[in-house]
Amino acid sequence: MKKLGKVVAVAAACAALTGSVAAFSACGGNGLEINITGSTSMEEVMGKLADAFIADYEEANGVTPTINITGSGSGAGIEDAMEGRVDFGMSSRKLEGEELDSLEYTNICLDGIALVVNKACSVTNVTQAEVKALYESGTAIQNTIIYGISRESGSGTRSGFEEVVGIKNLYSGTGFNQFGSTGEVKTSIGKNSDGNTMGYISLGSVDTTVKVLQYNGVDATEANILNGTYGLQRPFVVCYQSEAELSDIAKEFLDYIMSDAGQAILVKEGYISEQ
Length: 275
Hints:
- This protein has 10 helices and 12 strands.
- The strands form 3 sheets. Strands 1, 2, 3, 4, 6, 9, 10 and 12 form an 8-stranded mixed sheet that branches. The protein has a two-stranded parallel ribbon with strand order 5-11. The protein has a two-stranded parallel ribbon with strand order 7-8.
- It is elongated, with a radius of gyration of 19 Å.
- The two termini are 25 Å apart.
């Protein structure tokens, strides 16, 4: 993200006033403010969408909207949307149960969940059964991967991962760590030169610091997600109380995300448009 002064930095400064999301309402107030919380997997790409939207809006209208984005986890973003504390909640999992009864939502793209290891790891392919056994009981994969890194409770990435793999009870033995963000997972895997630890992150967040494994013999690629052969995938969702109740500027931003320009940004960042 480049324009942090207009996007995330504003959110941090406002939230610091009271230490809560509610503090957002104290900032701005010109009718051109959007508050967004939720999935850390979506935080960076939402910032890029916001930057592009702000630039276009400034050019067309001569005024600058403010978009506050805070990565707090999918569960927190959904709750904030349900409670009316924000315009949009970001979720990197499907809504369910009471959430569906309370909120409207838009799937903005698809994301694959990539299984990642250090480049030194000799393993190239893992099966669903192997991944499930590692994360549920600490059973080593191919006598090489002996630890599993997970995300924190409430993470959409974790919820999606556990649901698809079928994990019921996450193993908590020594070396099985939980992290609060995608970046922390990548950093930990990158430092694991022994190659004995596996983690999972958004496919769109993969970079050269990690090695991506095949899952059930299938590469984690856009084509394989769209054709359904790669099983570790999930939607990126923005949720809100009601589209009819969104402010004009919030509606414009949602329209922008789903426009050709917005979808092009998502595709450029490695995510998958269904349009």
